[in-house]
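User: tokens in, sequence out, please.
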């Protein structure tokens, strides 16, 4: 049966018990997957609600990157068990990365029998069918296959914002960093055809979208799996020509695949945002080798030097893992030295979390939580000082801000981002949402800037 026939069947079956809650954990990839899930379910006649008390169906789109993400998901599942004991009709779907991890899958299937559907990251198109079938059995319906449906790349999706959108360009990852589960949860790397991506962005632009974020685990290796090769930089160049699009961002990159062509693009592609998120993970060559990252800290510094030589105002951000197995105080100092050298605008710091099935999880010399926390705190202090100093350069400057939303605590305060991804707060009104406005910065902090519209 065709997938859209299941949408019709599901619509008829659930009738007025059609309210669903959708909880998303993890990265932008997951957020965007959830936008697809929302579209598919709405298209099947279901209605999204926020309060779980109103819901007949709960969908958890899970993350497995660190133990904390896994614990969060299992914690919420525990609460749902109580809810389901009071409401036997409640349907529970667990999707995303967690069911793709063997131990977590065992745990879900054996100890969480209140889960009705378990699905991976491959085929959200199948969700109406899986959900429909779950109404006719007490068993858990499972689809965690690796049969990735590339057509799902062309799926429609709901959007959280009218003026900006994510766009998938690659799926999966081939890098096998020794700490990371992604190659196991999202499969081998594959790229979407450039013409499909351009078509999708053209439609978004026609719809009023001004900013797009190109998504992939390693966008720099875009095009390698295509018959007709196209580089990431040339893809951006084509997108730069699309009328209506004003800003192009991308997430996330691997230093080993950064090309000179991409770095040079910052000099002449006017829509390419002046921000590079380039995860370094560690500043120690020994740790980088153990992580299977395939570059040295010197290689990384050379990339940064080139970027700065194109434009010293390009904002630089990164991911760093502290407490990787065998990381000595000396290794950690090398990370601090690198951070000081680059002068990042901000850093996501993670405590190393052993993940089942990855080589690092069984390495000797696992580091205690106490040492990890200590390194986390010390690195945070270094980063915050650098970030504040970098932000001070914005004082009295006028910047263009794409306005995102109203503040949660004050309906007169709005926020948005600069080209360099700085969060800016200012007084305004709701007509400004989705507009590019000029703001003069009059106060700077470590994490955001305040200003006045000029
Ligand atoms: N433990 C801690 N952090 C991790 N990351 C990936 N796997 C792990 C892990 N096992 C971090 C990396 C990556 C970011 C998305 O998550 O820094 O860049
Ligand atoms: Fe994980 Fe490394 Fe792939 Fe990033 S590049 S998703 S850290 S394996």
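Assistant: Sequence out:
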């Amino acid at each position: 049966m065709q997938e859209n026939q299941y949408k019709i069947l599901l619509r008829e079956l659930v009738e007025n018990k059609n309210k669903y809650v959708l909880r998303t954990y993890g990265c932008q990839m997951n957020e965007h997957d959830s936008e697809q899930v929302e579209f598919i379910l709405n298209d099947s006649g279901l209605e999204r609600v926020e309060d779980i008390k109103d819901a007949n169906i709960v969908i958890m789109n899970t993350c497995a990157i660190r133990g904390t993400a896994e614990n969060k998901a299992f914690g919420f599942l525990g609460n749902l068990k109580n809810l389901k004991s009071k409401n036997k009709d409640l349907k529970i779907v667990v999707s995303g990365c967690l069911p793709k991890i063997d131990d977590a899958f065992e745990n879900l299937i054996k100890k969480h029998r209140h889960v009705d559907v378990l699905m991976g990251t491959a085929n959200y198109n199948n969700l109406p069918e899986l959900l429909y079938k779950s109404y006719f059995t007490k068993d858990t319906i499972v689809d965690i296959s690796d049969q990735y449906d590339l057509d799902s790349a062309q799926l429609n999706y709901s959007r959280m914002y009218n003026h900006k959108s994510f766009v998938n360009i690659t799926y999966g990852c081939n890098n096998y960093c020794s700490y990371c589960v992604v190659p196991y949860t999202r499969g081998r790397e594959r790229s979407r055809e450039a013409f499909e991506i351009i078509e999708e962005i053209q439609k978004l632009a026609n719809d009023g979208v001004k900013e797009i974020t190109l998504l992939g685990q390693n966008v720099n290796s875009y095009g390698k799996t295509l018959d007709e090769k196209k580089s990431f930089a040339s893809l951006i160049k084509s997108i730069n020509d699309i009328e209506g699009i004003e800003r192009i961002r991308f997430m996330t990159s691997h230093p080993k695949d950064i090309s000179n062509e991409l770095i040079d693009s910052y000099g002449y592609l006017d829509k390419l945002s002046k921000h590079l998120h380039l995860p370094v993970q560690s500043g120690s060559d020994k740790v980088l080798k153990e992580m299977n990252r395939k570059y040295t800290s010197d290689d990384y510094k050379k990339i940064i030097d080139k970027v700065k030589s194109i434009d010293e105002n390009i904002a630089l951000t990164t991911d760093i893992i502290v407490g990787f197995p065998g990381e000595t105080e000396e290794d950690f100092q090398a990370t601090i030295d690198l951070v000081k050298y680059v002068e990042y605008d901000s850093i996501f710091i993670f405590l190393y979390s052993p993940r089942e099935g990855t080589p690092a999880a069984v390495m000797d010399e696992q580091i205690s939580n106490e040492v990890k926390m200590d390194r986390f705190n010390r690195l945070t202090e270094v980063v915050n000082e650098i970030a504040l100093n970098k932000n001070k350069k914005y004082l009295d400057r006028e910047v263009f801000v794409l306005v995102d939303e109203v503040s949660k605590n004050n309906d007169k305060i709005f926020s948005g981002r600069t080209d360099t991804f700085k969060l800016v707060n200012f007084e305004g009104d709701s007509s400004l949402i989705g507009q590019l406005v000029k703001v003069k910065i009059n106060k700077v902090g470590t994490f955001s800037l305040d200003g006045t519209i000029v």
